[in-house]
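Entry for the shared binder. Reason: the reviewer on the internal report wants the predicted structure included alongside the sequence.
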Amino acid sequence: MKRLLLLLALAFPLLADDLERTVAMMAKVGFATAPSFSPDGKRIAFLTNISGVPQAWTIASSGGWPDQVTALDDPVSRVLWSPAGDWLALEVAPGGGLNTQVYVVRPDGTGLRRLTEGGKENNSLDAWTHDGKALLIDSNRRSADALDAWLVDVASGKMRLVAQTQGIGSINAVSRDDKYALLSRLANRGDDDIYRIALDGSSDVLITKHDPPATFGSSYFAGAKDDVVYLTGDPARDRSAFGRVTIKDGKASPLEVLAARDDAELGGFEIDDRGETALLAWNVGGRAELALFDLKTGKSRPLSRLPADILGAAAFSPDGKKIALALSGSAAPQDLWLLDVATGTLQQLTRSAHPGIDLAQLVRPELVQYTAADGLPLSGWLYRPKEAKPPYATVFSFHGGPESQERPTFNTQYQALVANGIAVFAPNVRGSAGFGKKFVNLDNGALRVGSVQDIKASVDALVSRNLADPKRLGIMGGSYGGYMVMAGVTEFPDLFAAGANLFGVVNFETFFAHSEPWMAVISKSEYGDPETQREMIRSISPVHKLDRVKTPLIVLHGANDTNVPVVEAEQVVNTLKARGVPVEYVLFPDEGHGWRKTANRIKSAVAVTRFFVEHLK
């Protein structure tokens, strides 16, 4: 017996060390994204975390080794090359929070300078003017409950209010003559509008008049024209399409649909500077299908199968002959590729580091279709562990948003779990994007109880097919997905053996009170109005049902999170500790809403994987 105990004591530390080592290698896999061409088309600015924190780099458009531009302690979340070629504009997130600041830096890394004031104000980088002298940003410097559009003179740093908004305002594009901009205004989640505004403040035209709800995504001017606007929208359809609006005598025509699919939504598009070609990115059940659309003839040319399933970003070269694509997939970290418009051929530009990880051995998910309790069609992505047989120990992972979509992208947490013999099922419950306007609005307000019931339907679907072991079920999610975790363990207290709540909402009253004011303004249509619907909001808040929780939990949160403030995590941890329910708490002092730094991604992935291995295997 003593010999057996000694062998066990020696073996378990080795197993723990092996888990930490393998999961850490997975979490270290890098990415490259957000391409932006130089004016001469010879180089591309982009973001990568190769240094451990996302920073700005540049690479020759012909390929080769990239050059690092910034080496900040804080993550860079966007980079745009000036049309004049002399500056890169940066969006930097101090401590990973939402109080992002806008900087400029020379392409060689010199002359770094902050344009915004710093502090707690939220700022986002939108676009350059075509003369390269000014930037369009959105900022809540005027009022905490609104992100207005501002024009920033790069030389002097002076800021001028261009458009006052309620909720979120952001600039999509600027006309070639720098007289007009396209402004997206989002006052309620799930319904927005686009305006053509004069940058001198003299006029604005609503170009998306509609009966709500409707969403309008990307929008661009047609080359040198400022009276023709191309945009993504769904005002008279269930699924988003590609269309055009013409402005005449200060009024906009109805949306003219140019390209649409009944089996897909248009996830976004890009137009070349000449206004001749559009790259259309169709979201087909979660996978991307690309097509080149000739704006003169109206003909669409589908591109051959991509090397990965998801398009993260795209940018045309100045001459319109090339397109830089950020592509990723379940077994492919996000990298930059260069598409030749004429031939459709692809060249890989970056190769994100993945030391110790054989990408060919990573698990690719399969699509599982099933129905909710009320008959609503649902679907989700199942990642099967290679070294296990069904029924599997299974973690059900719910995405954030909630107006987001689970797609087969590169997810180190999923791959870490399946590598340790645990299956992952990632559903798209009602309220998810990508399946039409009706579907995405099925969880608004009091209808949220339907999406919570979809948790049980998702479990039943896999258990009934002998894919998931009912005695070894876990649940995890981040942001709104964290809300679904807490809803799952309170509404179905005997269903899950373990849960991981990553920066999730537990109490909508405290969420509205402590989140960014502009976030609170736009969220009333999604969650309810805390002033007029208090009882409903209380009824859908898991915090009032924590006395039901039996499930051991791990809670992870960023101390600088101003989207879902840390008070949400504290309510869960303090209440469950007082009740004697097993709960672990991991607080990241240098992160906000999600993890950007490699060291923190490793710490989170290791903690969550170890937690589920201990409780499910």
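Summary line for the report: Confidence is low (pLDDT under 50) at residues 1-15.
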